[in-house]
Amino acid sequence: MRVNIKTLALMSAAFALALLLSSVYQTFFLTPLHHNMGISVEDSPSQKTSDMGRASSFETLDRHGSDAIVAVDESEARRLQKKVRVLVWVMTSPKSLDRARVVKSTWGTRADKDLLVFMSSEKDPSLPTVALAVKEGRDHLTAKTMQAFDYIYKHYFQKADFFMKADDDAYVIMENLRYFLSHLNPNEAFVTGRHFRHHVKQGFSSGGAGYVISKETLRRLALRSKDPPMCKEDGYMEDVELGRCLEKLGVPILNSTDSRGRSRFHPYTPMHHVVKGLGKNYEYWDANIVRVGPDAINEFPISFHYIKPDEMKLLHFFLYNIRPYGINHKFSTT
After folding, report:
1. Which are the contacts of 253, defined by CB distance < 8 A and separation ≥ 6?
2. Broadest EC class (predicted)?
3. Which of 191, 230, 239, 254 has its CA 20 to 30 A from that of 210?
């Protein structure tokens, strides 16, 4: 039987194509997917052994994740927590207790348990809240603030050295608050926070951003004359009215920006202070030069405002759980 050259060539090509298709089939259809992805496992005659190998491989990859963090050193934060006794009282209401509960479960866990107080007009044992003798509503924020500080003076004056007021939609980074206050003298009168101007000669501290008063300031405020009244005991803009009262009591405003003019207390969200901006009318209020962007905020910010509950949970997660691998921070203990 004679086979011409063309027929022989076609037969050879067909055989080569069959080998190629067989190789492709073996590679993409019979070989486990993890082998094609470049994840090496031990060869085995059974699928069960292959699955065991894949699990072992993923376990190895996982060890490069959670097990990479050997320990988190919070010794400096704990040292400041013992040194700087700061009470935070949170202004809330019966209608906004869900926000207050998120505060308690997020940044409230970083506060001293017995120095986190929720102020409302009704008692709620689940938080718990302190029931002040005030009406709810923005027109009575001054009464709530004045009565809250009177309550704090009566029940907590000897338990803390600094006293911060925060809203239930504010996020406070307690470690940074203690660090900032560690350089201040609680026996000197002052109030500090986001310094606003207008309405009061020396200005006032933004209520939304939160503000801190010293032990001496709390003493003066609690012992103010009420008959006749030295300060307005009720009204709408509680931060303005408190500012007027503290000015009458000879309490100065302490600047909270750093040497580069960067802010620590923030009346808006991180998104507004870093990206979106603060609005065209904001410059009217701020006593300092208004800046927006990463370089406008101190690396140890203390507070942000208008934080929704889900955003508060997310912010808390990022602050205390996310870490870029290989970056270690060294902190001054002075």
Report:
1. 190, 191, 192, 195, 202, 203, 204, 205, 243
2. transferase
3. 230
